[in-house]
Predict the structure.
Amino acid sequence: MKKRIDKISNGVNILELTRSGRARVLVIGNHSGIIQSMLDFDFLSGKEIPSVLGIVAGNRKAEKYFFGTKEILLPCYKNIQIASEALGSKVDWMLNLQSGRRTFESTVSFFDFFPKSLGAHIFAENVPESHATELISRFGKKYFIVGPSGVGLLIPGALKLGAIGGVDAVQIKSGALTNAGNIAVGSTSGGMTNELIHAVARAGKRLSFAIAIGGDRFPVVSLTQIFALAEADSQTEGFVYFGELGGVDEYEIIELIKAKKFTKPLVAYIAGIIDEAFDEHVQFGHAKALVQTMDESARAKREALREAGVIAPDTFPQFLDALQKLPGGAYTAEEMDIEPLQGRQKSILSTRKVSDIDEGRIFVKGKKLSKGKENAFVDATLVALLGKPVQSPITRAFTEAVFEMLIDHGGNVSGAVNTMITARAGKDLVSSLASGLLTVGPRFGGAINEAARLWISGVVSQKTGLEFVAEKAKAGELILGIGHKKYRVGLPDPRVKALAEFATLLKVHPHYDFARSVEKATTSKNGKLILNIDGAIAALLLDILSECEGMSQRELQELADAEFFNAFFVIPRSVGFIAHFMEQKKNDEGLFRLPDELLFVRAETPKKTKKK
């Protein structure tokens, strides 16, 4: 037992650190009711920002929740490693809501990636006992881990880690969860911990902290550790405990009292007297709730506790009355308006204000044109696409150059042809533009984004261009961003040549260098497999966003996943398509029809032979 108690030697620091603000949580798995209750607790406690920093939950990018009446998006991460890259050292606690057999792996992974965190709560029941004992062995001395099979940790006004205290605003108010006091609550039972919290509130007392260690056989933080924590905590002046038949937890508490390692007033209730009514001992709700010896009966435990000076009533009503004997005066019920938190409905769509239409603008002043902002349209476009102002003139200049270059590439490319044919069929501007845009894809205009994906993967993998090309060739995959029908080695694309000069403005350009190394490998096989305009735009834009706008590799990947890079073709080329539409309407040449001299590839119908 001593070894388990020693693990909590820094436990008081856990409470003090959390009360001082280290209460930021990463959730693994998803349980919307529990997560929302944590956010409501934060809001009602007067916090300005939510304690939940994000959720590790599959392939989703974000989940909608409320912080007060304001709807927020909590970021979601595919795995813990990606979460660590995004959040760094900001995370203090982990709430694990995964199923019993998955919690071990994810808990180990969390502490591997967040070694400076304080602890965790494991919500799941039926965690294999071998997993629980391994968690104790690995992390019991270093981290404060509540569970498995509990409802969590509560530090009033500071942290609600789990379902503890309830999962709606009414329970948060009735349990006075946001107001710190001087009474600690502890139990193996999650449900009874919640009952004790509300019983303490009804008795006019307030909590210093509350913990449900969990009903499984091997909780990571033990009950004796919780009592040691309460003893050392300057804010705790009394303890309320709920136990049950089975196990020896209560005898360990008695040893603490006898050794003067727990000296504060304790009110305890031990459930399970009903077991005496059966001919054989019965397994009750929790893994440990089974009498193995007479000393483990509820009656024996009550008597032993009373002999040690603990207030241990025989009935639950007597137990509730005994709470009045705990230190501290009676608190009056706090005024807390929870009505705005009732009946909230999530919005159907999530969006943001792309452009401020209410901003006062002056275009003409004193019958003279006001001097416009340089690159104003480009700047506004980048802000709209990225969701934040750009920092570097290089980013603006590159975007301006790309937009100017890609407005048009003649009337014989597929998108322009589609636009013109639709216009000559008598259709309107929007229909004709849509017709042209619908041709954008991997073979026309839509290769910029896929090229960006390829350059990102190449840089991350640290492969050489030759290795990358060999890998793609073996898999039978095309390398988008490489190859052109018109230009070749010796006859370079002038647009690529012009854009390449932007690389000279950067300190480093790993994506552009990688793209050129791929080009070197492909042109050694075929002179037409040069770096084309799509590949050049993708590579240079990646390097510019990285160096000039401070974007991480993860943020660049997110932009590629959202097809951000194809916007650099779609925006300017839409202007070109509209120009072709206008030209066709002006000329009004009538319905377009292909000539009859077309090649039809189909099997000839065999001639019928006459029957003799």
